[in-house]
Amino acid sequence: MSREHKSRREVVNALKSIPSMSDLLSMHEGHFEYELDLEVIVYGRNYNGKKVGPYVRLLTFEPSETIITEGEWGGNTFYVAVDGRLDVFVNANGGSGVKVAELPAGTQFGEMSVLAGVPRNATVKSPPDRAVKVLEVQRPALRLLRKIPNFGETLDKTYRSHGKTSLIGELKSKAGLNDEMGLQLSTISQFRVLSKGHVLFSERGRVDRLYIVQSGWMSRSSLASVVGQAQVPEDFLGDGFCFGLEGVMRDAVWPYTATLMGRTEVLEISVNKLRQNVALREAVTRGLAAFAPPATIGEKVNFQPVVREKILSAQQRLINTGLVDANNLLVMDMELCVRCGNCSLACHKIHGQSRLTRHGIHVTRLTKPKKSADQSILSPAVCMHCKDPECLTGCPTGAIGRFGGGQIDINPQTCIGCGDCASQCPYDAISMVSRKKEAPKPNGNFASKLRDLFRLTPDPLPQPVEQTDELMAVKCNLCAGTGMNPEGSKRVAYGCEESCPTGALARINPREYFTEVGEIEGLVFRDQSHAIGRNIHRSDPPRRLIHIAGVLMTLLLTAAGAYGIAHYGLGARLAGFLNMRWITGLVGLAGIALVMTYPVRRQIFRKRAGALRYWMLAHSYIGVIAGVMILLHGGTDSGGAFTSILMISFDLVILTGLFGILCYLTVPRVMTRIEGEPLLIEDLLKRREELQNEIAEAANSPSEPLRNLVKNKVVPHFLSFGNLLKQFLKRASLDDMIESAKLEFHQQAAGLPGESDRQKFMRAVEAAATLRRVDALIFLHRLLKAWLVPHVIFTSLMLALMVVHIIQVIYFA
């Protein structure tokens, strides 16, 4: 096991011995030139009573001891060899480690995980014959050390060198190159890291470079696609392609322009030098031919124009927003989402402060190459555990980092509440909350728990954070270290996904889930670093099994009950005191007892109890079975006023439940067709108030002609019941509807005397048209919950009557 040297003098001496870092100790006029940075990095510093640093540790590793392990996440630290040589191993095809290199003293290693957000690509060990000293450097030191020119240059050079070595190693296995060819390829190539907007090559330019894209995305365009002064992207491609093979054997020009859409890593090979080595040229051409991109722009999306346009639009949206580069992405299928808020509530119950906000990035895509196969997807403002997380950049203490499971998390003990990570995150996925935790609420007595079980009002929202000190950052950590994922768990469970009653939420690997993105990736590199979420939208075997079992049980028990009553009647004894009335009654009672476990499960958030969507399905099927059994139990004779009321209450429970299922199946689908960007009802109510005020301002205008038009024409036309129905039936987009409304009232606007009145009138028309769409969405939101109140009331009444009925039956029996 490694031993840490506590002496700061030894750490300083180690820094002096490392060429790239020795300038940290440089002097100017008797003072350290980087005095403050040196203090923070080596000794640590107190800021307002909070410790920042130190960021380096000097460690001694015993012979053959492992320093870093291939495949492990290590995004928080990199290392520098202080003395001796280190051995580098990679796993061969059989899984055994093969020594591939040695690292001399002064060499940095492990920086790929820190800078690129990928698992370690090699194992580094101390030599078998001696112990070695290694300097461990934490991520926060990077922004301070980069001030030293020599360190920054060395870090970039080392990163490119290791990147090239790793990439060529993969090419050797994929393209069938031997070790000698790998070395030759290394001498005529360079590893480049390019930024967004860089033109990799231009149409009609000479092919003088071979490009192998390791990571990144690009758009392709041609001179034929020029609109105005810019070329419009005609399609998109991802990593894993080899560009320029057509120029290796003969002179050629680029058939299109490739523009990078974000940070991209490429291996650039000189075509002229490759041509000079005949054996290498032929091996590369033959080995990489399978990885050439589609020659024709749009070849991979060769569908009818409407479909192709939708696919390209989704691809561009997914790439530009960065969703495709998430390690573990949370998505909500809005056609399944019933807007209950249970996901956010579960997050709040588990963590004490919800890390899930139901606002975020909206994408409309096609699940199949058919123009009617639209899917409305919302990626809520929750951590994506990015491959290249910007939130890690500014943290002064290293409190936020990539942990062992690949998730980005925050250590509350070292977080000083500066808020740098929250301001750096482009997705608003990090919140600042009070460090002082509220006192835990008592569990309550049985009566309070029973009230909670049947409570209709939602849990109160947490109070907004208004204080400016004693804060700490919180974010999604994939429920690591919570009761959702106890030790020994075979699969990872996420509280938000487990608490969704309809299966709308899914944790996914974006490059597998979004097939339109997977189809534009090459085959050279298949990035295995992405955590695999459970894609319950594509395949959910337990749900399918529950459906099959539910249908079969409903049919079998109904048939058995009907057969028994037809042959034996309700009163004839079958065994002991049992007859068909008792049997159907007991089966119905057992069904009711099982049905009532669903609201109990709905209150369980902090531990695993099975996904709520499965409980919801079972609740529905068992409820139907219980309803059928009770109807058979009652027979044709109600038996008096009391039992008649009991039967009616039970029927009303079943009817309201079935109505709720119908709403859950239809309302979200209607909503996604007309809402465009998904909005919460709170947003809609606020927007409605704004629109009403805008219309009222025009209706109370000093100009009489404008006032009369708004009151007598616009308001009656748009705010009618018929126009409300049109929102659901016609389902036109809001933009089309507004444009149609403006055309309809264009003539009336032209008749107004002044330009100011005409502008106010058209704004009132637009506001009125928008208001009716907002009203329709508010109605749908409320319809999703309208069935719940009567369902709970009738259930409570039915249970009370059922208890009395059971006591009555037992007493008389």
Q: Please, could you describe this protein's structure?
A:
The chain has 813 residues and is an alpha+beta fold. The chain is 44% helix and 17% strand. The strands form 11 sheets. A 5-stranded antiparallel sheet has the order 1-6-13-8-11. The protein has a 4-stranded antiparallel sheet with strand order 7-12-9-10, with no helix packed on it.
Question: Radius of gyration in whole Å, from Cα?
Answer: 33 Å
Number of helices: 27
- Across the major sheet, the strand order is 1-6-13-8-11
Proportion of beta-strand residues: 15-25%
Distance between the termini: 75 Å
Q: Tell how many strands the DSSP assignment holds.
A: 33
Main sheet summary = 5 strands, antiparallel
Keyphrases for this structure?
44% helix; 27 helices; alpha+beta; 813 residues; single chain; 5-stranded antiparallel β-sheet; globular
List the helices and strands and how they pair.
Blueprint: E1 3-5, H1 8-17, E2 27-28, E3 31-32, H2 35-43, E4 45-47, E5 50-52, E6 56-61, E7 66-68, E8 77-81, E9 86-91, E10 97-103, E11 108-109, H3 111-116, E12 123-125, E13 132-138, H4 141-145, H5 149-175, H6 179-187, E14 189-194, E15 199-201, E16 209-215, E17 218-221, E18 226-227, E19 230-231, E20 235-237, E21 242-243, E22 257-260, E23 264-270, H7 271-276, H8 278-288, H9 305-321, E24 329-333, H10 342-351, E25 357-366, E26 374-381, E27 400-402, E28 408-410, H11 420-424, E29 431-434, H12 446-453, E30 471-474, H13 495-498, E31 505-508, H14 510-513, H15 515-518, H16 541-568, E32 573-575, E33 578-579, H17 580-595, H18 597-602, H19 612-634, H20 641-675, H21 681-699, H22 704-718, H23 721-729, H24 734-744, H25 746-750, H26 755-786, H27 788-812
Antiparallel strand pairs: 1-6, 2-3, 4-5, 6-13, 7-12, 8-11, 8-13, 9-10, 9-12, 14-23, 15-22, 16-21, 16-23, 17-20, 17-22, 18-19, 24-26, 24-31, 25-26, 27-28, 29-30, 32-33
Helix pairs in contact: 5-6, 16-19, 17-19, 19-20, 20-26, 20-27, 21-26, 22-26, 23-26, 24-26
